[in-house]
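User: Please fill in residues for this 119-position structure.
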């Protein structure tokens, strides 16, 4: 997922309620920490894509000209500090950085893994 992590065009599509149909692709920021890919909901846990990702636990992402079937795993704890650092490094010049490392977005952190590789 190295090329995907370095890209700035990640679109996430968790499955819809039927577990087969992909949701509408949503552009979001992504960062890598220790070889894992992480995303956050700008609107926190109220983000529709976040709610679908937590509920369905799978879907797909598109970035860097690639489409991958993936699993979604909500995370919390100390990893969030490292995800914050990765956001600071990748998006330092964005006016949206503050909210993305704030409590609301931190509460909606998801680790993305290739389908079948989730912990």
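Assistant: Residues filled in for all 119 positions:
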């Amino acid at each position: 997922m190295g090329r995907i992590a370095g890209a700035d065009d990640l679109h996430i599509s968790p499955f819809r309620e039927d577990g087969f149909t992909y949701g509408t692709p949503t552009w979001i920021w992504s960062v890598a920490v220790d070889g894992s890919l992480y995303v956050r909901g700008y609107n926190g846990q109220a983000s529709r894509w976040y709610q679908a990702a937590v509920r369905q636990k799978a879907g797909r992402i598109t970035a860097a000209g690639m489409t991958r079937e993936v699993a979604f795993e909500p995370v919390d704890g100390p990893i969030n500090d490292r995800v914050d650092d990765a956001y600071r490094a990748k998006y330092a010049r964005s006016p949206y950085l503050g909210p993305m490392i704030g409590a609301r977005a931190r509460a909606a952190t998801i680790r993305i893994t290739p389908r079948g590789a989730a912990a």
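For context: The chain has five helices and seven strands.
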